[in-house]
């Protein structure tokens, strides 16, 4: 118990550092809650996040808490991962590149009792990071120009504690309870070459401190001694985040030096949508594993605060037509010739995955960016004189986001994760 407590305290002490990491640099992250993060660890990333139907004894699968009941009874698992990405933006024949990196997750898990597994750790929920400007000529004056500058920063993160229980063979369920927190700030400023025209700045901010609850279910059906099919389902509870939205609008005239500032606020502005997932996984002889996931996030039932001016009257209000329901289709596979072989090569796991995701928000009344992603990865056992169960997970992922009439974003990400597998609960026999 002392080792478990030490790992838990280490994770909690390191969370402020992890929460600062932000691997997203995307103009699309200025909309809604930003770029939604993949809720998975190193095991799932090579398969593009697939995992609702997977059950593993030596890897943590946080996409479905019911899978915790499959954790090996002798092991304590500790999984930490980081990633680096290269992103290319293209619009109207122009191209720009950026690089970024961050620590992505810290996870731990162990078998608490017979058929009961426990997991805890840190996962990001969403990220906001962008900084760009647009310059053009005013329609009514070819000699005057304007510059619109956009920048934003922030993230929402979660620390969770989950349980998975298999009350009888082939049936398991679980729950993740999380503390969700974070803050974002977004700034839009307008300036003009003509000093007689007042510049305008709009600053948006919010702070979130709430909870998040996800349930999971798995049913495993053997078809033969070598083949097994597992059906999985997840349900995320939708609720109000009890967070206020703030907006400050300031104008300044360079010619007259006259400034004016107005502050707006919307109470209880943000909601977490109901999230439903279903998946299946086929396991052949513990060598070939193929999975398919479908997730549905009911964002359309929530609203988002927007600032607008109608008939010269400014307002900051909830727009109930801002979000769209989000659908994600995901397929992935893993192949391992023999995980218990004495040599290294047969124990290496090869992973592949692909997904298609619909947008969850609108851009000026039109659908936002759709997302297409493919991934590949390997899991390499770490074999030495004192441990042959830990695993190095390496994966590469390509993600394209594109909305009609807007920029195209292509991101290439390399993720590296290390799963430590220690036999803390083995009982040694002395003769």
Strand line-up in the sheet with most strands: 2-3-4-5-6-7-8-13-14-17-18-21-22-23
Residue share in helix: under 10%
Structural class: mainly beta
Count of distinct strands: 23
Rounded mean pLDDT is 89
- Unreliable parts: 1-22
Number of continuous helical runs? 2
Strand content: over 45%
State the end-to-end CA separation: 26 Å
Largest sheet: 14 strands, antiparallel, barrel
Give the ordered list of helices and strands: HEHEEEEEEEEEEEEEEEEEEEEEE
Describe this structure in words.
The structure is a single chain. This protein has 431 residues and is mostly beta strands. The chain contains 2 helices and 23 strands. The chain has helices at residues 2-20, 42-45, and strands at 35-36, 76-91, 94-113, 116-138, 141-168, 171-192, 199-222, 227-236, 239-240, 245-253, 258-266, 271-272, 275-284, 288-297, 304-310, 313-319, 326-335, 349-357, 362-363, 366-367, 370-381, 391-402, 408-422. The strands form 4 sheets. The protein has a 14-stranded antiparallel β-barrel with strand order 2-3-4-5-6-7-8-13-14-17-18-21-22-23. Strands 9-12 form a two-stranded antiparallel sheet. Strands 15-16 form a two-stranded antiparallel ribbon. The longest helix is centred in the N-terminal third of the chain and has 19 residues, at 2-20. The radius of gyration is 24 Å and the shape is elongated. The model is unreliable at 1-22 (pLDDT under 50).
